[in-house]
Amino acid sequence: MTKMLASVNSLEEALLALAANVDIIDLKQPASGALGALETALVSSIVLAVNGRSPISATVGDLPMQPEIVYLAVEAMAETGVDYIKIGFFPGGDWRGTIEKLATLPRTMNLIAVLFADTQPDFAVIDMLKSAGFKGVMLDTMNKNNGSLTQVMAKADIAQFVRLANDLSMLCGLAGSLRLDDIAGLMPYRPDYLGFRGALCLEHNRTAQLNKASIMQIKQAIDDQNSQQPATVENRVLIADDSEINRLILANMLELNGYTVDSVADGAEALEFINKNQYEFALIDLGMPVMSGLEMIRALRKQRNPLKAAAISTFTVASQKAEAFSAGFDYCLTRPVDEDQLNALINLR
């Protein structure tokens, strides 16, 4: 399902976007360039006011591709508490060195690389970004006077970009002066997000104030297109467990009962799969490396994702179940998992 990203430049606009139920609030200053940044103090105040009711992304500005400059800007923005940090990859400079420097940051930072369609970017960089720990990639436009994304890049290239991101299980966004008329043409590629600014403003002026009616019109158009997309796979379950044996046992139980199963080894990878696919149910081990089951479910609920999920553990301590439910799990399954109980639980969805 494709979601809506709305770019805002103030607390007032962020609250307007929140009231309109946009899927992600993106913080930037359009008057300062393609990816102009807001002051970190303002970003922090917006994060505090939104209080987890919507995921928030923020840009670090139109920076030269110099490793130390970009690295320090990302570190500073991470301290604001935003969920995603967008980094523009502008022409020139040291792309490889910048990516290698950013790869040293904690993998808990959700970095999104922004490539500019009107600069003919080399999509081969996406593999490098994935290896460096980036969570996603976006296509945008640098020069807003050249038209929308669909006017500066061939549809075949846009489709290739989305496909490459999907193959690497990376979040994928499309933006760049998009208008209402662009939605129907881009939705069949199934990007995770379509990003808007100018189309949400008075008279399509990206530096003007947001207009609530325009936000609602764009949101409704995306929802309508989502309803027209082909149905997703039914009876699909995600298993997240760092033990290969445990994954195989659970998968075997489910597959014998007609379920399609995807298996991953940690919570971070589970979130990537959930953001890319539709699942009926998720079985999540509490004790995993990189990101535990508790951390994973908290992150999922912060995204307002209602996917039904069961925590799996030996639950030798009584308080563990209470902690799991408090974090956002719907059910708890004690190892060793009983096949009949497992199937009955999933059929409750």
Overview of this protein structure:
With 349 residues, the chain is of the alpha/beta class. 38% of the residues lie in helices and 18% in strands. It is built from 14 helices and 13 strands. The chain has helices spanning 11-19, 40-50, 67-78, 95-102, 125-131, 149-152, 155-167, 183-186, 212-228, 244-255, 267-276, 293-302, 319-327, 339-346; strands at residues 3-8, 24-27, 56-59, 84-88, 111-116, 136-140, 171-174, 193-196, 236-240, 260-264, 281-285, 309-313, 331-334. The protein has an eight-stranded parallel β-barrel with strand order 1-2-3-4-5-6-7-8, surrounded by six helices. The chain has a five-stranded parallel beta sheet with strand order 10-9-11-12-13, sandwiched between helices. Helix 1 (11-19) packs parallel to helix 2 and helix 3 packs parallel to helix 4 (95-102). The mean pLDDT is 92. This is (5-formylfuran-3-yl)methyl phosphate synthase. Its EC number is 4.2.3.153.
